[in-house]
Amino acid sequence: MCGILAVLGCSDDSQAKRVRVLELSRRLKHRGPDWSGLYQHGDCYLAHQRLAIIDPASGDQPLFNEDKSIVVTVNGEIYNHEELRKKLAHHKFRTGSDCDVISHLYEEYGEDFVDMLDGIFSFVLLDTRDNSFVVARDAIGVTSLYIGWGLDGSVWISSELKGLNDDCEHFESFPPGHLYSSKSGGFRRWYNPPWFSEAIPSVPYDPLVLRRAFENAVTKRLMTDVPFGVLLSGGLDSSLVASITARYLAGTKAAKQWGAQLHSFCVGLEGSPDLKAAREVADYLGTVHHEFHFTVQDGIDAIEDVIYHIETYDVTTIRASTPMFLMSRKIKSLGVKMVISGEGSDEIFGGYLYFHKAPDKDEFHRETCRKIKALHQYDCLRANKATSAWGLEARVPFLDKEFINVAMSIDPEAKMIKKDEGRVEKWVLRRAFDDEEHPYLPKHILYRQKEQFSDGVGYSWIDGLKAHAARHVTDKMMFNASFIFPHNTPTTKEAYYYRMIFERFFPQNSARLTVPGGASVACSTAKAVEWDAAWKNNLDPSGRAALGVHLSAYDAETPLSNKPSKVIDSIPRMDFPGVAIQS
Q: How far lies 489's CA from each of 20, 75, 161, 456, in Å?
C-alpha cells in the first residue's frame, strides 16, 4: 500500500509550507519505500510515497492526463484497468500503472466515474483548470484514509492519522464508499449496493454461483509485477484463498515472472496447533511454506510500534495486529511485496460464534450488514496498516465488490447456523467448495469449526499482555479511568495500557474519536448484544462470552469480573489469516 498526503487550499504557497508537507509525507514513508513524489499547484500540494506493485519502472506518482491539467495521487489497485483503458482508447497514457486510468475517467465522466473502478483505492484528484478537487475511498474501506480541516480553511487528506493530526483543527476517518467534492463542499456516497439498505434478500442459494464469484475475486488479485504470496493460518478462509490461488496461478503473468509454485506464510507461538494446520494445508496444496515463530516477549516489545502504526486503542485489534505486524516484517525481508489474505468472510457469512444466537434470518442478515459496514474500523484497519508498516500490500478477495453482491443477495435462511441439520458457521461457503472430483481442501479442513484456544495448552500470549499491563496500570488508575478517559473509558488494565500509549502518540480529541467503542460480545455489534439477555453481563470481545454457544463458554451465573484471567481472555482463533496464536 502506498501513502498519500494532500493539503488543499491552504492559502500558503511558500517554500516553508512545501518543506512542511514533505516532512509530513515522510511520516508515511514506511507505506511506500520505493519512491517519493510531491506536486505543487499554487496553494495545493499532493505528496505520494510509492510501493511499486504494477509497472514499477514507470508508474511513479503523481499521475497526470495528457496536458497535465488533471493531477492524481492514489493508493490502491485497479483490477479492471485494462478493460477501462479500452473504453479510453482515444486517450494517451503516460505509464503502465493500473491507476493511470483515473485522471482520464474524470475527463470523460466527471465525478461520477468512481463506481466504474473495480479495486481498492484512496485518491485525491486535483483539476488545475479551476482548482477543484475530488477525494474518494474504496467501497468497504480496505485502504485507510483520513480527512482534516485547518484553521486557514485548508482541507487535508492522509493515508494515516500521523500525516495530519498535528496540523489540523479537526480530523476524522474518511467514510468508505464516499467521495468528497470541493465543488459541493461535502461528502457523497458513491457506493450504493442493494445490501446497504439492509433489506432482506431472497435469491436462492446456488453453491456454484458462489464458488465462481469467489474464484473470480481471487484470480483478479493475481495482477502483480512483483513477488507475492498468501497468508495461511490453516483456518477455512485463508485455506480457501490459498487453494484457489494455487489452482489458478499457472498460466498467469505473475507465474511467468515469478514461477508457478505459490509461497505461503504463517506466524505463531512455538507449538501452536494452527501452525500445524497451516503446514498440513501447505503440504496438500504444494506451496513453498514459510513458518515464522515469535515469543510473548517479542509481541510485548512490539506493542508501542503496533499502536503507532495501527492507530487504534481497540483491545482486540491490537492483540490480533501484533503477530501480523511481526510476520509482515519477516515476509518483506524475503523480497515479497504483496500478499493475499482472508479478511471479511466472517462478516459476510456470519462466522462469529455469537451468530448461533441470531433470533431469525432477518436479524442475522442485518447483523452481517452492520459488520461489513464497520470493517474499516477493525479488520481492514489491521490488515492494511499491519502490513503497510513494512511496505507490504494485503489484498482481500472476500471484500471484492462483485463477490459481496453475490454473497449478500443469498436468502439468509441458507446462512443460518443449524447444528441439527449439520450446518455449522459459514456452511454456504464450505458447501460451495465441497467438490468430490476436484477437491479444494481435505474434508476435515473444509468443515473445521472455529477453534477455541485449548485450556490444556494455556494462554501465554493473552496472559502475557495482561500481566505486562498490570505492571504498568494500578488499581488507583483504573478507579479514576472515567475522569482521565471520559470517551470510550477503558474497563480493563490492558485497555488502559493501550490507551495511554495511543494518547501519547495521538493526543488530540479528534484522534480518540476515530476509534470505535460500545458494547460487544464475542466481536458482535452493540445491537446483537440484545439477542441473549445473559450476554449483557458478559460484555467481552472473547468468543467465550457467547454464552450457550461454545462448550467452554463462560458460565452464566458468575459475574465477568470474577472470572479467572485465563477464562476471561481465552479467545477463539478468529481466522486472522496467517496468524496462529497458541502456546
A: 35, 34, 21, 33
State the cell numbers at 512.
Answer: 480518540
Question: Can 523 be counted among the known catalytic residues?
Answer: no
Rounded to whole angstroms, how far apart are CA atoms 420 and 136?
Answer: 46
- 84 is an annotated ligand-binding site residue: no
- Distance between first and last Cα of the chain: 32
Dihedral of CA atoms 562, 564, 565, 571 in degrees, nearest 10, equals: -100
Domains of the chain: residue spans and CATH: 3-192 (3.60.20.10), 196-545 (3.40.50.620)
- CA proximity to 529, closest of 517, 520, 518: 520
How many alpha carbons lie under 13 Å from residue 302 in its C-beta half-sphere?
A: 24
Tell me: the pLDDT tens digits for 448-482? 776 533 322 235 888 899 999 999 999 999 999 99
Sheet with 35-41: strands ordered across: 35-41, 44-50, 3-8, 155-158, 146-149, 170-173
Q: pLDDT (tens digit, 9 = 90+) per residue, 525-565?
A: 888 888 887 776 666 555 545 555 554 444 443 333 334 33
Please write the tens of the pLDDT for every residue from 369-393. Answer: 999 999 999 999 999 999 999 999 9
Cis peptide before 572 (omega within 30 of 0): no
157: β partners: 6, 147
Q: Where are the beta strands (DSSP E) in 370-426?
A: 393-395
How distant, in Å, are the alpha carbons of 103, 474, 538, 546 from that of 493? 49, 8, 17, 22
| 517 carries a ligand binding annotation | no
Burial of 400 (0-12, 13-18, 19+ CB in 10 A): buried
Three cell numbers written together for 394: 494485503
| pLDDT (mean) for 93-108 | 93
For 110-183, where are the alpha helices, taking DSSP H only? none
Rg value, the chain, Cα: 23
Give just the sign of the alpha carbon dihedral 465, 466, 468, 469. positive
- Torsion angles phi and psi, residue 448, rounded to 5: -70, 130
Query: Distance between CA 515 and CA 477 in Å, rounded?
Result: 21
C-beta separation of 95 from 63 below 8 A: yes
Amino acid of residue 379: D
Please check if 341 is assigned to a binding site. yes
**Cα angle vertex 297, ends 295, 300, to 5°?**
120
Of 36, 77, 66, 43, the residue nearest 182 (C-alpha):
43
> Which one of the listed residues 2, 99, 168, 266 is annotated catalytic?
2
CB 343 within 8 A of CB 395: no
* Most confident segment among 219-223, 224-228, 572-576: 219-223
> Can you tell me the distance from the alpha carbon of 336 to that of 351, in angstroms, rounded to the nearest whole number?
30
> Whose CA is closest to 513, among 306, 307, 312?
312
Band (573; pLDDT cuts 50, 70, 90): very low
Q: Please compute the mean of the pLDDT values over residues 222-250 and round it to a whole number.
A: 94
Q: Confirm if 152 and 145 have CB atoms less than 8 A apart.
A: no
Neighbours of 516 (CB within 10 A): 18
